[in-house]
Amino acid sequence: MADVNRGNRPLSPHLQVYRPQLTSITSILTRITGNALIVAALMIVWWLIAAATGPEAFAVADGFVTSWFGDLVMLLSVWALWYHTLAGVRHLIWDNAKMLEIDNAETLGWIVVIGSFVLTVLTVVVVW
Fold first, then answer.
1. Which residues in 6-40 are b (16+ Cβ under 10 Å) and which e?
2. Which residues contact 30 (CB under 8 A, 6 or more apart)?
3. Which of 3, 9, 36, 82 has its CA 20 to 30 A from that of 55?
4. What is the DSSP string of 83-110?
5. Are 22 and 106 in contact (CB under 8 A)?
6. What is the pLDDT of residues 15-47, one digit of tens each?
7. Structural domain boundaries enclosing 67
8. How many domains are there within the chain?
9. What is the torsion angle, in degrees rounded to the nearest 10, for the CA atoms of residue 100, residue 106, residue 107 and residue 111?
10. Dist. CA 128–CA 36, nearest whole Å
């Protein structure tokens, strides 16, 4: 039988009482960076297809990719790639039942966040 009081209850009571933790935020950010990397990959594929298509198509794609917005997307993609990689390593550690205690899990979260920024800066310095 249907719950007649369903409309009287809040939709997500946990949002009213739950304080987000570093591990939950980094997990959500891992999903976001994974999807953002798909968008960046599509931009790179567009650039490659335009290069194979002809000079006019390549000029349009190259103009976009090398613009300030394209540079920003590529910079954020480098960060997302490092973040997503480090978060994947963290999950491999957790899959082996290591560092699951709260303090260790938070330490791993900070390593992922700080490490992704440090590796992004190192990558940009080396590439440019």
1. eeeeeeeeeeeeeeeebbeebeebbeebeebbeeb
2. 83, 84, 87, 88
3. 36
4. HHHHHHHHHHHHHTT-S-SHHHHHHHHH
5. yes
6. 667 778 898 899 999 999 999 999 999 999 999
7. 21-127
8. 1
9. 110
10. 23
